[in-house]
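Give me the fold.
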Amino acid sequence: MIIPYSDMYSFNRDFREAKSAGIYYEGPREKQTFFESKLTIKGVIYDGENLNVYVRGCRLGSGSKLPQQAVVHLPSGETLGPRSWGGTMNLFCGTGVYSYEDVPAGLSQITFGQESYDEAFSFEIPLGKEVAE
């Protein structure tokens, strides 16, 4: 299947579809810094098996504004690495999606983060209440 470049990362469409299906969750409103990028969670899509975490990172300059290997910590203590990730970048900001599969059903919270070279970020994300438009 060939996907046109303009349609590869249609996050707003993903959010609309997930909201109507009741599987979209707001991210925390906080910002955290990781290697000079200011990170925010744009939202989470979780259907009880697959989990997508949408992240925005902003800083001036070239290079990635997003973490490369962010993991999800489950309440059980298990850690999941992303199956895939992708995103879009410009001079100031990047927005990406981290996809995890075979995620246990019934999660009420996850922790999304990374630690590398004495830098770290960690977002507690509740999954208990869907957000409707």
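The radius of gyration is 14 Å.
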